[in-house]
Write a structure and sequence with these properties.
single chain; mainly alpha; Hypothetical protein af1432; 56% helix; binds fe (ii) ion
Length: 174
């Protein structure tokens, strides 16, 4: 292949049509807008689309490096929805992990994900606080990419951030 030519999604076997459906889903957009509004003045890390896409891309790289074999759209769906429950957490105080499971179970089937895929993604979202300990590959991938996505090395509020020194990313790895 000549240098500078991008591989099309057709060539790579990745079909991102279902991701497009999530991006246009009414409930997804509604929750995303609520998060953006609530976090507009937030000085710590935010949970909007930029964060979700960072997580998606890092998770996809890890999946390729580790030959995890997960479909690209499954990884992106998991990442796009993983913090969506924050919209409810900000309103009611409910855990965003549990709220995220409910939202994923509602949104994913309407975007063409099978019951099995929905269950897999929802599970990973529900345990993303400590997904490494579950032994589930999706959960571990989401947990690691979520942590790796944060630019602690460029943080302006590290003095008061609750992340421990051991958790923080001191340099760029992805
Ligand atoms: Fe989270
Ligand atoms: Fe996150």
């Amino acid at each position: 292949m000549p240098l500078g030519r991008y591989i099309t999604s057709e060539e790579s076997g990745n079909n991102m049509e279902r991701i497009d459906r999530i991006m246009k889903h009414r409930l997804f957009l509604d929750c995303k807008q609520k998060i953006d509004r609530k976090e507009a003045q937030r000085m710590y890390c935010r949970h909007g689309l930029e964060h979700s896409l960072d997580v998606a891309r890092i998770a996809y790289i890890l999946n390729l490096e580790e030959s995890g074999g997960l479909r690209q759209d499954l990884i992106y769906a998991m990442a796009l929805l993983h913090d969506l429950g924050r919209s409810r957490e900000y309103e009611t105080g409910a855990s965003h992990h549990a709220a995220g499971v409910e939202l994923a179970e509602q949104i994913l089937p309407e975007c063409g994900f099978t019951a099995e895929e929905t269950q897999r993604i929802a599970y990973a979202i529900g345990v993303h606080k400590n997904g490494e300990e579950t032994g589930d590959y999706c959960a571990s991938l989401l947990f690691r990419a979520d942590k790796l996505s944060r630019s602690c090395f460029d943080c302006k509020v590290s003095e008061t951030c609750y992340w421990t020194e051991a958790c923080r990313n001191h340099d760029i790895s992805y």
